[in-house]
Amino acid sequence: MNMYTYKVKNFDLDKIYESGQVFRWELIGGNYFISSGKNACQVFTDKDKKYINIICESQEKEFWEYYFGINDNYNEYWRILNLWAERDGEDSYLSKAIKAGNGMGVLNQPVWETAISFIVSQNNNIPRIKNTIKKMCEKLGDCIETDEGYFYYTFPEPQNLCNIENLQGLGIGYRDKYISDFARRVLDNKIDLDVLRIMPFKEAKCILKSCPGIGEKVANCILLYGCGHLEAFPVDTWIRRVLDREFPNGFPYERYSRFLGLVQQIIFYYERMLNK
DNA sequence: GGCCAGGTTCTAC
DNA sequence: GTAGAACATGGC
């Protein structure tokens, strides 16, 4: 294991953790222990959140740099967001959300894991989603022991999830048929997850929505968190509430069209924070 | 014990 | 195309 350190400007692990885009982060003693796909790392920032430290195997360095979006344009996005917040005045809902969400980011997660995770998420709550995915990994993933002697589980592969009988007893509920069907499609090359990233947004969404169990909202989540489509704007119960209450005359989609997904993430975090 | 959860599908107008 | 019910499960 090695530690890699990156200078960051707008990066807040705690807010990302609380923003409903990850289900396999565990906060232990101030550090996040993260598993994603076949990989695992340990992450923490310094007190001022100016440096992010990633502890991982050297061959996984690039995976985690990509995962955390180390080279993505967040400085630019935040510059623009703060500019708009200033113009709108501090009383506007979005200005308040932007201020509260400073340091939010959208991760680049493996698309397969993202797809399965958000199929599980439908009509479900976050603690239960985490629990189900954890059990799924423990039962159907591989157990890996690191140099340091701690254990983690990889995310199951399509061949592990295509058999619906393997999915019983994990709390997946009625979504089991959606998951086994999706795994079967991937195994049979009926759907190519890797090309969704390069495809036009609408086209990729159309392909995802043709799969049972994936509707408008889940498709947007997969495209946003797993395919780098930052124009995706998943509307769940929380976002719906905000749109109806704060934007009865329409949301300024055009203004944020380059990074709508980041704005959605900021709103989701802020709205849930207000309700705690 | 009833309600709700990062929704989707199916059915009926 | 839109409203309403059904869907598994467990935390609160």
Give a written overview of the molecule.
- By secondary structure, the protein is an alpha+beta fold.
- The protein has helices spanning 13-17, 61-67, 74-88, 93-100, 111-120, 126-140, 158-161, 176-187, 201-209, 216-226, 237-246, 260-274; strands spanning 2-7, 25-28, 31-36, 39-45, 51-56, 143-145, 151-153.
- The strands form two sheets. It has a five-stranded antiparallel sheet with strand order 1-5-4-3-2, covered by helices on one side. Strands 6-7 form a two-stranded antiparallel ribbon.
- Helix 3 packs antiparallel against helix 4 (93-100), helix 4 (93-100) packs across helix 12 (260-274) and helix 5 (111-120) runs antiparallel to helix 10 (216-226).
- It is globular.
- It binds a DNA duplex (13 and 12 nucleotides) through helix 6, helix 10 and helix 11.
Brief summary of the model shown:
The protein has 276 residues and is of the alpha+beta class.
Write the layout of secondary structure elements.
Blueprint: E1 2-7, H1 13-17, E2 25-28, E3 31-36, E4 39-45, E5 51-56, H2 61-67, H3 74-88, H4 93-100, H5 111-120, H6 126-140, E6 143-145, E7 151-153, H7 158-161, H8 176-187, H9 201-209, H10 216-226, H11 237-246, H12 260-274
Antiparallel strand pairs: 1-5, 2-3, 3-4, 4-5, 6-7
Helix pairs in contact: 3-4, 4-12, 5-10, 9-10
The chain binds a DNA duplex (13 and 12 nucleotides) through residues 20-21, 118, 121-129, 131-132, 171-176, 178, 212-218, 221, 234-239, 268.
